[in-house]
Design a protein that fits this description.
- The structure is a single chain.
- By secondary structure, this protein is mainly alpha-helical.
- The protein has four helices and no strands.
- The chain is elongated.
- The two termini are 18 Å apart.
């Protein structure tokens, strides 16, 4: 679930949590690629889909 929070933070405050963010625990480019479940860049839909997967509401992220 912390991945979902980081994705949302990176989208809401990219200067701090984005790929080049100032926070030491900002998202990495590799993390952003893995989190992109739709292949269209990191979006709020990716965070939602990961959350649904973690809750067992969908069988896979693909």
């Amino acid at each position: 679930m912390s991945d979902v929070v980081l994705i949302m933070q990176a989208l809401a405050n990219p200067n701090k949590y984005g790929v080049n963010g100032t926070n030491q625990s900002h998202i990495t480019s590799e993390g952003g690629e893995y989190a992109d479940t739709g292949g269209n860049g990191l979006t709020v839909s990716d965070a939602l889909r990961i959350q649904q997967y973690l809750l067992g509401l969908i069988p896979s992220l693909t």
